[in-house]
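Before relying on records like the one below, remember that each one covers exactly one chain. Contacts with other chains, cofactors or solvent are not represented anywhere in the record.
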Amino acid sequence: MTRIIVFIFFVSFFSCNRSSTNFIVVSTESNERIVSIKDAIILLEETTANKIEELKEHGLLFNFDSNESLISVSINNANYKLGSGIKIGSNKKEVLEKLGKPIRNNIALNKGKREIGSIDAFFYKNGLFIFDNDGKVKSITLGDIKGKLI
């Protein structure tokens, strides 16, 4: 009996993927849900679709492709946060505690085959967190970002 319980715990613990693919964006002030990202699909809340321009003025940017499909959402100020509580100004430790180990960190900037710099960032499936020089989140982009970085 003890072996079965230990085995179930072991499998459950190590099979969980902490690199979350699902995110929720909420208003810091009202806690109103604005956007959900689930398995690379961006779902706008009903009230959000009617006020995209207003949200842009407050630091939530919606990025569309040439077919006018919503492909990513960027948070650039503390008016919005993730459902996990991560927001602009959160530190790296908090991001790691809430989302686990990133797929990649530090994005290389290349000119041809030569690396000319890097960006301090954590890259998760469907989430990019860019940090400032103090290790605090300065930008969050959620959705289809892989093609822009790799």
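The first strand starts at residue 23 and ends at 27.
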